[in-house]
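Hi C.,

You asked whether I'd gotten around to modeling the 98-residue construct. I have! Everything is below, sequence then structure, no commentary in between.
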Amino acid sequence: MTDAATRAADLLKDHRDSIDRLDAILVFTLAERFKHTQAVGVLKAQHDLPPSDPAREKTQIARLEDLAQRADLDPAFAKKFLNFIIQEVIKHHEQKQS
């Protein structure tokens, strides 16, 4: 391997190591988030509240889009990501109410 190729391989490894650490952070963060949304689902079921809260969802999406913009992340991607999470949370809340 040439010096340039060796240096590129080292840089690639460093980036991949960072990506792996960030993936772990994402997984543990999502797990923590879902622990809280599960507790919300239990409360909603106990108090006969609807599994979905469209006003909060709208606020959260706007908030996340703003955060994404400030973080230089595509806001459309952030919105899709949050919508996916919201749908999973609603599904869990509906299961708690059955």
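If it helps when you're writing up: The chain is about 85% helix and 0% strand.

Thanks,
B.
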